[in-house]
Amino acid sequence: MPKPVPAPSELTKPFWDAVDSRRLVIQRCQGCRRYHHPPVELCAKCLSSDLAFEPVSGRGSIYSFTITHDARQPAFAEIQPYTVAVVELEEQPGLYMLSNIPGVPTGDVKSGMPVEVTFEEVVPGRFIPQFQPSRRR
Ligand SMILES: [Zn+2]
Asked: 93 C-alpha to center of ligand 1: Å?
């Protein structure tokens, strides 16, 4: 069974369009320059509706994580157990994305681990962002 495919809304479409081109963009307030993820209609800091998607480095670190052993979703049964991590992007404290950490045994995942974005093709032409240990030193 294939993994679920993202279903972009009008608000999230720019994010997913970039992901499908293997680029990571994050919505940013053009008034106060604060990043927002997931995307919002209004900036929570300055209430501006002037928001745009801007490229980010794709680098961050694992803020927290859990190991999932729940196979109720058949599409994920064959990869049990797997990591679900909160990744804090380096652009802004508290700018988080949820991700798996594919290719890393669950026992090797650590909080604070430097990671970088990679893109998994879930069906032809449709990608999801994932994070892997950083190759930079
Ligand atoms: Zn703002």
From this structure: 15
Whether the CB-CB separation of 28 and 34 falls below 8 Å is answered with yes
* Under 8 Å between Cβ of 129 and 15: no
- Whether 136 has a pLDDT exceeding 80, the answer reads no
Residue 8, in any domain of the structure: no
CA of 89 to the centre of ligand 1 (A): 18
* Ligand 1 centroid from CA 27, angstroms: 11
pLDDT interval class at 137 (50, 70, 90): low
The rounded Å distance from CA 95 to ligand 1 centre is: 14
Q: Is residue 5 part of a domain?
A: no
pTM over 0.90: yes
